[in-house]
């Protein structure tokens, strides 16, 4: 019975954070703005680039996969990449330049003005994400932060979606919800002719 209480409490906590998200018009407005920026980037031939550490690295890969493969329906792929997948690149940069340069260096190689960079960090303070955000803003790449409450990322982003929670698992659960919403919106708006 004690284990059941733990699981019920976890579900309730997750729902509570999502309810706070639903009740936060400023956060929802930022999500809408980010989705519109991603759509506009695709319409002009740019791409969406994502990065994060640990669970946030998995989220970056998950969101990129939704853009490239499909979300709700079959359609052509949209150009998106996660900077967390190539072990040779990751270890080369980590060895030669340090872990803090992991994503900045890849953004320098693969980013173009007009692209969108989404840096995911639950703490809002991951140095390699902060460095990449700073690089993006200096080179015409829109820097979007996906974070929890607080952190340096809010001051170095063009836009920051801050989940109203300080609990890492609950923030990460909301991050993937937000990623799904953005992917679903972009797919729906970009591919009118493919919808049934």
TrEMBL record:
SUPFAM superfamilies the UniProt entry points to: SIS domain
Locations listed in the record: Cytoplasm
One Pfam family from the record: SIS_2
GO annotation (BP), single: carbohydrate metabolic process
Domain spans labelled SIS: 38-196
GO cellular component: cytoplasm
Cofactor needs: Zn(2+)
Binding residues annotated for Zn(2+), in chain numbering: 62, 66, 172, 180
Task performed by this protein: Catalyzes the isomerization of sedoheptulose 7-phosphate in D-glycero-D-manno-heptose 7-phosphate.
Note: The reaction produces a racemic mixture of D-glycero-alpha-D-manno-heptose 7-phosphate and D-glycero-beta-D-manno-heptose 7-phosphate.
Subunit structure: Homotetramer.
Descriptive protein name: Phosphoheptose isomerase
Organism encoding this protein: Photobacterium lutimaris
Lineage start: Bacteria, Pseudomonadati, Pseudomonadota, Gammaproteobacteria, Vibrionales
